[in-house]
User: Fold this.
Amino acid sequence: MVAIKNILSLVLVSSILLNCSKIEDFKSKDAVNKGESYRIKTKLTLAESQNYMIESPKTIVNAGRIFIEGDYLFIGEFGLGIHVFDNTFPTNPLPLVFLSIPASTDYFVKNDVLIVDNGNDLVSLTIDALDKLKNKEKTIVELNRSLLINKRTSEVFVYPNYPIQQNVYFECPDKEHFVIAWEKGDFLNVSNCYR
Amino acid sequence: MSKISYFFVILLFFLSCKGYLAPEPIRIVGSQKEFQHFHPTSNPSQYFVLANRTINFLNVNTPLTLNLSSVLPLEIDFEKVAGNTDTLYVQTASELKLMHLDANAWGELGVIRDLKPCDNFLTMNKFIVIAKGNDVCRTSNEVPTITVYKSDSLAVPVFRIVASRSLVTKSYTLQRYGKTIFVADPIDGLAIYEISATGKLTLISNYPQIKTERIDIFELKKIAVFKTLKGITQYSLADLKNLKELSSVK
Assistant:
């Protein structure tokens, strides 16, 4: 009985040592490891990711795809949604609204329809409300801040639960959330994933 | 060994190494495809919708229905795609494949090898333009080059190099505008090359001050939009030798 206990103890301690060394080797042997890493800042549940809103214009932080369609300039904001400008005069684009579409990374616009990824899904949204806002026929409040979904096709994509930056370490995410914002800093102690 | 000792050993097991309960490490060196799902095809009524390992078409004339049709009857580990319903260019982690598609059959027609995931390509009529040599994926000492390939036949393609030259910038981003191509990176700026009918490459202008990691070109409006440190900047493309800034937003 004592022998079994000793063996069990040895296995446990060995597991600790082997497991730790595996993670440390992962970073220490990497020539491009500069000590800079990304920690999860904001993550959403599936239900939270499907809450679409029309909001007041916001500052652009991390611009993604840019699209000009009709009189509008669209600028994607990684993980958060799309900035819309009235681009009737390209010399003077005017901020119009921010379309809050959480967990989105890419989109395009065709015939007043916004096609966008949303988490793992593909969705289409009608955006004819933009004309009403641009022409001052309605306000955001009068539109009830609602952005109506037309169609959803589930599980088309695999949401990128990692920073868009490459050659970086980041905190490993769980599978139940969509990470929509990352914080850059010296977080190597929690950053065991790499890309 | 006492019960207390056992308790500490087990506690040590769970706490001493913080990474123990962490998910398995993820390594996705190079690929940005999960950030870029939608690409226009050379057919105005269709868009590519790129999922994890499948390439689909979406009919944009009926965008509300979101009817996707699979382009290839198989999964493929692609990075970037271009082309249309007949002819498809697929860039994988190591090569560029030209594939023929029709309702009943598909097949690989030709291939250009020795590519990296971060290399860029575009098609321009009978030419394929490949810009190589950037450090987006990994630190690289490769000299940035641009190469124009041509095949006299798409049915039985044999790609031959018709022009090649070193770039004045790295090829962080590559876009087409008419007979010209825009190559840029956030350090060296923007360069614009013209491709002649024979495939000859000519540098027509260089803008070291336009340091950008992203170019979007809207040909019908003759506008290019650059993502720069200054913000999102629109330029008129009326005169490529003298790009005129229209506005910038933040």
Summary: Residues 54 and 74 of chain B are 7 Å apart (CA to CA). Confidence is low (pLDDT under 50) at residues 16-20 of chain B. Helices of chain B lie at 3-15. Chain B touches chain A through 57 residues (CB under 8 Å).
